[in-house]
Automatic annotation (TrEMBL):
<keyword id="KW-0812">Transmembrane</keyword>
<feature type="transmembrane region" description="Helical">
    <location>
        <begin position="74"/>
        <end position="98"/>
    </location>
</feature>
<dbReference type="InterPro" id="IPR035906">
    <property type="entry name" value="MetI-like_sf"/>
</dbReference>
<keyword id="KW-1133">Transmembrane helix</keyword>
<dbReference type="Pfam" id="PF00528">
    <property type="entry name" value="BPD_transp_1"/>
</dbReference>
<feature type="transmembrane region" description="Helical">
    <location>
        <begin position="243"/>
        <end position="263"/>
    </location>
</feature>
<keyword id="KW-0472">Membrane</keyword>
<keyword id="KW-0813">Transport</keyword>
<protein>
    <submittedName>
        <fullName>Carbohydrate ABC transporter permease</fullName>
    </submittedName>
</protein>
<keyword id="KW-1003">Cell membrane</keyword>
<feature type="transmembrane region" description="Helical">
    <location>
        <begin position="185"/>
        <end position="208"/>
    </location>
</feature>
<feature type="transmembrane region" description="Helical">
    <location>
        <begin position="143"/>
        <end position="164"/>
    </location>
</feature>
<dbReference type="InterPro" id="IPR000515">
    <property type="entry name" value="MetI-like"/>
</dbReference>
<feature type="transmembrane region" description="Helical">
    <location>
        <begin position="110"/>
        <end position="131"/>
    </location>
</feature>
<feature type="domain" description="ABC transmembrane type-1">
    <location>
        <begin position="75"/>
        <end position="264"/>
    </location>
</feature>
<feature type="transmembrane region" description="Helical">
    <location>
        <begin position="14"/>
        <end position="35"/>
    </location>
</feature>
<comment type="similarity">
    <text>Belongs to the binding-protein-dependent transport system permease family.</text>
</comment>
Length: 278
């Protein structure tokens, strides 16, 4: 009986790991294919049979991509816009979420409900008035126009509020009795315990801004202000598209996302589980 039970247990583990291995290959293959395309000429993308071996056109595709869109300037623009956006949006969302979670004031629940309802407004419906406002203030084709409009991100406020609600109010009252000011309580007592939630929120904010295409396409007028989504969209021609350049651009655009997510992965998982349980 023990032998049969052991065999069943071993067979179950082998089946589970085999199942996970299949899904791992399915998940990783698009990234591998992207890298293969970045190292081969455009014609190899439609070769029959397809090639799964890295080629020798990596540097050629990189030079062509840089000549067409100025990829290093695009990389700087994307990193600067996304990085500054994460810092500012995180500061706004944490302070607003803390106020909604730990301060009692008239209309708090109504205001928070309005914030949540604003998530139901189609993003495209805000583009025309936003464009008119930026044009009136002569802010189009600036970093300010790319960063400022989405700084107050409702989902980030909601996510941080759910985590702040779990923080013991008794600790805040004790700190106030000891003479600590509200800013000191927030910075030295509350925020250090919210690192997982901050990491999870920063990933959402970074992904949102890094992949934002519609608004930068409208607000940007010159190639020197392009971010990755806009720059990559210009590589698709009417009669011919160099897929080697496209794959190279996608590869470079994917690397910062992978690095950022892998660096925050542990905190991201614990932050999401914490917000769900709390």
């Amino acid at each position: 009986m023990k032998t049969k039970t052991g065999r069943k247990h071993l067979l179950g583990k082998v089946s589970m790991y085999g199942f996970l291995l299949v899904f791992l290959i399915i998940s990783v293959f698009p990234f591998y294919w992207m890298f293969i395309g970045a190292t081969n000429p455009s014609s190899s993308m439609f070769a029959s049979p397809p090639t799964f071996i890295p080629g020798s056109h990596f540097m050629e595709n990189l030079r062509n991509l840089d000549n067409n869109v100025g990829i290093w300037r695009v990389l700087f623009n994307s990193l600067f816009v996304a990085g500054l956006y994460v810092v500012l949006a995180l500061a706004i969302s944490t302070t607003a979420a803390y106020a909604f979670a730990k301060f009692s004031f008239k209309g708090r629940n109504v205001i928070f409900t309005v914030f949540l309802l604003s998530m139901m407004i189609p993003y495209q419906a805000t583009l025309i008035p936003l464009f008119q406002m930026m044009a009136n203030f002569n802010l189009l084709n600036t970093y300010f126009a790319l960063i400022a409009p989405q700084l107050c991100y409702p989902f980030a406020i909601f996510l941080m509020r759910q985590n702040f609600l779990s923080f013991p109010t008794e600790l805040l009252e004790s700190a106030r009795l000891d003479g600590a000011g509200e800013w000191r309580i927030f910075m030295q007592i509350v925020l250090p315990s919210m690192k997982p939630a901050l990491a999870a929120t920063s990933i959402f904010l970074f992904m949102f801004q890094w992949n934002n295409f519609m608004w930068p396409l409208i607000a940007i007028r010159t190639p020197d202000m392009y971010t990755f989504p806009v720059a990559l969209s210009t590589l698709s021609g009417v009669s011919y598209t160099d897929y080697g350049q496209v794959m190279m651009g996608i590869t470079i655009a994917t690397v910062p996302i992978l690095i950022f997510f892998l660096a925050m992965q542990k905190h991201f998982i614990s932050g999401m589980l914490g917000s769900a349980l709390k």
